[in-house]
Amino acid sequence: MYEGQEQCEDLYSMYINEIVKLHVQRKQYTEAALSLQMAARKLHWTNARLKGSHQLEWEGKEQLYLKIIGYLDKGKVMSLLLLLLLQFLIAIQLLHF
Q: Is residue 85 a contact partner of residue 69, using CB atoms and an 8 Å limit?
């Protein structure tokens, strides 16, 4: 990855995190979840290390999914929550089995 691309990725992550904070402060949990989902789509279910971290990419994605699920639960959006839970369970099964 080129240096310019890395800087764009860092800015993208910072932007998403700020948007999520704003949504949570306003108790807009569904919007916070959907914003985090944009960040989760950038990660893969692989054993590659996250840039600047000892964490594996799948571990980072798993953490994001758990946060998203929590926000969808708070936002009472059960249809999206169930769909995301199903995707999460399938990914974890494929990763570990």
A: yes
